[in-house]
Design brief:
20 helices, about 425 residues, D-Maltodextrin-Binding Protein, domain 2, six-stranded mixed β-sheet, alpha+beta
Length: about 425
């Protein structure tokens, strides 16, 4: 009996040393950035992990949109009560590193099995998870913008329903055929709708620049390229869409765009693949998805949120947080999340699961964004992201609003951005 007790005590000590027997009460912040049943899906996944790990608890907190969630997480961290884990914008990596509030996941995931797990994420989504050689985050609710189009509207316009526009020139040519006016000259259906207000506009605009052979920012968080010929040409195209009568003039909001597409106010729209679920559930017409029409070729920005583990928590809590993240990004659960929301499953093994194969066969539109990753670049990001991005947003809005030419607006944005970022050089 004494020998058995010693064996049991030894096994217990071993389990404690590997971090699998301790109890952790985790707090998890997450945002919602698309029209999808994300909150309930997150809750279900969290509850399932707790059932499998009854020694732990997880308080899942829906913290608003991306910016609101980041603000709340930073505020809590500065107050000494950080969330243990959070899904925050991939583009916020520089802010989080500068504020010294997150722990590099590569510092925690250092076994051979852990390294294999990290290597399983699509490289396109890891571009904005790494800084100075360390992996600070892993992809979760990731996306690219794509072109959604109404096949019935295409058919009525005499266009091939299986051939969406691939270039800017085709976008304008087809858009003119898709724009419909009533007897009084009022537009009842626009050819396309591209968000031109706020952060969503800056995101999509970054993809236009990529397709035009440029890139708005570098991976060091310091160098931005807002007034290059590639950037100016991309903004001129956005302005031209309205000038050619293909899109409404003035500002177009991100949030209203999917609704306008569903209601038939526009024959096509440019928005996140994260709206796939919303469109699939609500469109009463046949619809398709294509790559973002490009300038010199295909191109898109990656976007969305990554998992981060916060600093200021115990080693045991960090270990539990890593285990939680591995569970949430497993092939089975990434498939559930992708199917429920439309976000791109960030690992190749997810697409090999039976449920994901069935989903892709039923909704082949979901494959388009995944395949577009080959041509995707990192989202615009830098230190002082909020401030620097506001300069870019102002440039886009001033250009489409007619207050400034693209060249003038972007030159001003570049000057302001350099003034902020020079202190980091």
């Amino acid at each position: 009996m004494k020998k058995s007790n010693k064996i049991i005590a030894g096994l217990t000590a071993m389990l404690m040393s590997t971090g699998s027997a301790f109890a952790a009460d985790l707090e998890f912040y997450f945002p919602v950035g698309v029209n999808a049943p994300a909150v309930q899906t997150i809750t279900d996944l969290v509850d399932a992990w707790v059932v499998q790990n009854p020694q732990h608890t997880v308080k899942a907190i829906y913290a608003g949109n991306y910016d609101e969630t980041t603000t709340k997480a930073l505020t809590a961290a500065k107050a000494g009560s950080p969330p243990h884990v959070a899904v925050l914008l991939a583009a916020d990596i520089f802010t989080l590193v500068e504020e010294e509030v997150v722990t590099p996941i590569s510092d925690l995931a250092n076994s051979d099995a852990d390294k294999e797990w990290l290597d399983g994420f699509y490289k396109g989504f890891m571009k904005d998870a790494i800084f100075e050689g360390k992996t600070y985050a892993v992809p979760f609710q990731r996306s690219t913008p794509v072109l959604y189009y109404n096949k019935e509207a295409f058919k009525k316009a005499g266009l091939d329903i299986n051939t969406p526009p691939k270039t800017w020139e085709e976008m304008i040519e087809m858009g003119k055929k898709l724009t419909i006016k009533d007897d009084n000259g009022n537009v009842t259906q626009w050819g396309t709708r591209v968000p031109t207000l706020g952060g969503g506009a800056a995101w999509i605009y970054g993809g236009l620049v990529i397709s035009n052979g440029g890139l708005l920012s570098s991976d060091n968080g310091v160098d931005v390229h807002l007034d290059t010929p590639e950037a100016i040409g991309a903004l001129e195209f956005l302005v031209e869409l309205a000038e050619q009568g293909v899109m409404a003039k003035g500002g177009i909001s991100w949030g209203d765009t999917p609704k306008a597409f569903i209601e038939g106010n526009t024959a096509s729209m440019w928005t996140s693949t994260g709206n796939l679920k919303f469109v699939s559930d609500n469109a009463d017409f046949d619809w398709g998805v294509g790559f973002m029409p490009g300038g010199k070729g295909p191109g898109a920005p990656v976007g969305g949120g990554n998992f981060y583990i916060f600093d200021g928590i115990t080693d045991e809590e960090k270990a539990a947080s890593l285990d939680f993240i591995k569970y949430m990004t497993s092939a089975e659960n990434a498939a559930k999340w992708s199917i429920a929301t439309g976000y791109i499953a960030p690992r190749a093994d997810t697409w090999e699961t039976p449920v994901m194969k069935e989903y892709a066969a039923t909704l082949p539109q979901a494959l388009v964004a995944r395949d577009q990753l080959e041509y995707a670049g990192r989202e615009f990001a830098s230190f002082q992201r909020g401030k620097v991005t506001s300069f870019l947003i102002d440039a886009v809005e001033a250009s489409v609003g007619g207050q400034s030419t693209p060249a003038e607006a972007l030159a001003k944005a570049q000057k302001l951005a350099d003034a902020v970022l020079n202190e980091y050089k």
